[in-house]
Amino acid sequence: MTTMTASDFARNISRVLDRMEHGGDEIVVLRNRHPVAKLVPGTTEMRALEAFSDIYGILPEEEGAKWLKDAKSVDKPLSKELKDPWE
Q1: CB contact at 8 A, 26 and 1
Q2: CA 25, CA 51: separation in Å to the nearest integer?
Q3: In the chain, count of helices (H) and strands (E)?
């Protein structure tokens, strides 16, 4: 974890963000020698909900309806019996 003054952070924000993004550094920002903020890198993983959160905003309405129909069709179980994949 790195500590820096608010002034240093303001002057070097681009470099600090690069260090956080690529190096995973956590930064504590000090003002008058007291910690006022702790900056932590964002997650690099995205959940499916986050990835698809705006799908309706970017798909044309007709394509969205087709996608929703397809998505609902796989909610039904494919088979009620378990099968051994190595059989």
Answers
A1: yes
A2: 25
A3: 5, 3
How many residues make up the chain in this entry?
87
Beta-bridged to residue 2, according to DSSP, are 27
Residue 7 tokens read as 């002034």
- pTM summary value: 0.49
Q: What is the pLDDT of residues 3-52, one digit of tens each?
A: 999 999 999 999 998 888 888 889 999 999 999 999 998 877 777 777 77
Residue 20 has which token pair? 């956080």
Nearest to 25 by CA among 40, 42, 4, 46: 40
The secondary structure of 9-32 as a DSSP string is HHHTHHHHHHHHHHH---EEEEET
In one letter, which amino acid is 45? E
List phi, psi (to 5°) of 45: -95, 150
CB 4 within 8 A of CB 27: yes
Position 46, amino acid: M
